Design the sequence.
């Protein structure tokens, strides 16, 4: 019991750090957007994400309390993580177009671009981070399944539940750490220093924050799903991959 108490105490401290970072120290973005919305596109998108994530959780929790069922919460969060999965997929299309342009420009016109390398890693990294939570939702992450595939459904849920519960503090630590990493870059208006283009790097760093926040939200949903199955209830199934084409 003492160990369990320390575990929950750790989660409480991490939640407090995240609350301070995301909801107390993000006022600078909202102020900048309010003062000059037309010239603060990245700040506007950051604010939109923070509001969207909070609204998703609030709407889901309110619906679940009203219906006395966790299903509205599951559907609300999974809709939000799925949305960013779609955005990540479309980013791949932008990456392909940029790389084709670079190849044609470099080898046919002897005029290589200054931005191709940095555009490639930023778009690829953003797509990867946006797809993390959606991949978890669809059960597509790699698992060591030499035991998992040979036990009953309820034992699988116990394995999942234990794994996801221990994942929670790590994700909370990552969300706080990445927010601090991004905030410092934003404070000094950090640039990449990797090419002649030398773009500002903090918008890309914020995509790392988005990815881990979404993964945390989906992990909470996975915990709720496992508890429902262990309690003998059937959680709503995500849409099949075939239905996304």
Sequence:
């Amino acid at each position: 019991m003492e160990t369990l108490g320390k575990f929950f105490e750790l989660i409480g401290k991490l939640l407090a750090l995240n609350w301070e970072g995301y909801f107390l120290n993000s006022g600078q973005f909202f102020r900048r957007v309010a003062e000059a919305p037309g010239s603060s596109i990245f700040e506007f998108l950051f604010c939109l994400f923070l509001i969207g994530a909070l609204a998703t959780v609030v709407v889901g929790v309110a619906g679940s309390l009203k219906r006395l069922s966790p299903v509205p919460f599951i559907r609300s969060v999974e809709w939000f993580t799925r949305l960013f999965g779609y955005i990540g997929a479309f980013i791949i299309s932008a990456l392909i177009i940029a790389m084709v342009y670079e190849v044609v420009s470099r080898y046919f016109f002897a005029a290589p671009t200054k931005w191709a390398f940095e555009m490639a890693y930023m778009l690829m990294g953003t797509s990867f981070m946006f797809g993390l939570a959606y991949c978890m939702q669809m059960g597509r992450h790699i698992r060591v399944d030499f035991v998992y595939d040979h036990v009953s459904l309820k034992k699988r849920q116990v394995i999942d539940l234990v794994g996801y519960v221990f994942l929670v503090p790590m994700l909370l630590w990552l969300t706080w750490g990445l927010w601090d990493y991004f905030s410092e870059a934003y404070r000094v208006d950090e640039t990449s220093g990797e090419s002649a283009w030398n773009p500002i790097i903090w918008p890309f760093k914020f995509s790392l924050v988005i990815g881990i926040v979404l993964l945390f939200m989906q992990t909470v949903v996975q915990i709720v799903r496992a508890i429902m199955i262990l309690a003998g209830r059937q959680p709503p199934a995500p849409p099949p991959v075939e239905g996304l084409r």
Q: What stands out?
A: Residues 6-138+167-220 form one domain.
